[in-house]
Amino acid sequence: MIAYILNSILSLLALYLIYKLLLANQKTYRFNRFYLLAALVIGLTFPALDQLDAEHHFIYRPGDQIAGMEAEKITAIKKAPSIFVTANAFPESEIRGMAPDQTTDSSGFSLSFLLFSTYCLITLFLLSRFIYGIYSIYAKMKKLEYIDLGTTKIRLAENKVAPHSFMDAIFVNKSDYENGLISDEILKHELAHINGNHTLDVLFVELVKVFFWFNPAVYLFSRSIQINHEYLADDHVLKKYHNISNYQEQLLEATKNHSKVSFASNLNFYLTKKRLLMMTKSNSLVLSSLKIALLTPLIPLLVIVFNTRVVDKDNLLGTYETELIPDTVAVDNNFSFVRWKTKEGELFEGSNKLFDPKTGILRRETIYENGNTIAHKSYNGLGKVFFRTLFDYDEGIPARKKVYMSGDLMSEFIYPTPENNYIGIQRYWRLEGGLHYEAHFLNHPDNFHGLVTEFDKNGEVVEQERYENGKLLEKIK
């Protein structure tokens, strides 16, 4: 999530800088409108594609890895169907059959949770204000007198308000309108906002600000989009009324001592010296075309830059704090396992953590005891465990391994130890609960030996076969 926030801010700022350098001073208002809206969408969505692909969706099949370990060592590799899972954004709640202190983090409260809660509260407040703002405008519209112009209505307000438009309505001060102080040019300006559907742009940007209020670049785009609306409306008026100085005086007079209305296309929005100068600015078609042509290579280049990660293939997610060396322990000729030692040759004890080199967020943690792996945890973007692997040992020899996802048992692997006559069992469960698959094997998971069974949601046998040393003897069901 942190990587997305940084990437989206940087990409939006880069896109905005391109606008300011190439387009802001050009009278290509319609193209500028398209660019600003498209750039806002691109800058917010494209960085998210990398995040979605990178960490939130997983497809596990033979040959893939789960929490850094080969899938063959955890799940069935021949009969087991592929599983599509979506990582839970919430911490593990309870692992069936185990004590709570074995399954949940002792802190119970983290900075990530505090930040996420703060974001939700602020977003909820802004969303409520957004909805109330729209409701209040429509509520006010119903109370005002109006003059019907067909597709447009002029709403007459008692308070001192500058001419402005919202959707298909123009709001003006009643006294000013009745006394002829609202000129045709001013009404034409507001009609240009209505015919151009500028209110929809404003509402879209305001809604974006509700959910991306933390992104400073969004406010730059909001300002530029609204002032470009004014340029469009001014340009529309001046194509019919060619007296620029007279129109400028009417704008200044119409906005004097009047208030601004949220969500509306306001006549006095950024009525600056630059806006007045844009009315008299000459437009070079050749220069404008050249600047627009420059965008053709620039935009794809930016998309590539901000959505391509340089990956160290040797350290895909970074490196663990402590470098460990595997030491293979052979119980006999048919069974062996690995203990982990330090560079000094000592059996490792304690926790070994891996942090994402790009964000600094804890991604994995493995706990060791006397060189044996006791638990392996994978964390989501909120810093909470969503995958946990627990190992059981019998007199120092691996006996059982269980994998949990967000607190729910996902798979179980019983090792083919000499004590079990080299017979192992692999099982895994449905996401909604209930055993899905069970297979017995000899020495290695792909060497079926005994029953291989698939169950339906009700626990009934769907398919069952009997094997001996990897060969199918009988198809029971």
TrEMBL record:
Residue ranges annotated for the Peptidase M56 domain, each copy included: 186-278
InterPro entries given in the database record: Beta-lactam_resp_regulator (IPR052173), Peptidase_M56 (IPR008756)
Keyword ATP-binding assigned: no
TM annotation in the entry: 6-22, 34-52, 113-135, 284-306
Keywords, sorted A to Z: Membrane, Transmembrane, Transmembrane helix
Keyword Membrane attributed: yes
Source organism superkingdom: Bacteria
PANTHER family referenced in this protein's UniProt entry, alphabetically: POSSIBLE SENSOR-TRANSDUCER PROTEIN BLAR, SLR0241 PROTEIN
Protein name (database record): Peptidase M56 domain-containing protein
Phylogenetic placement of the source organism: Bacteria, Pseudomonadati, Balneolota, Balneolia, Balneolales
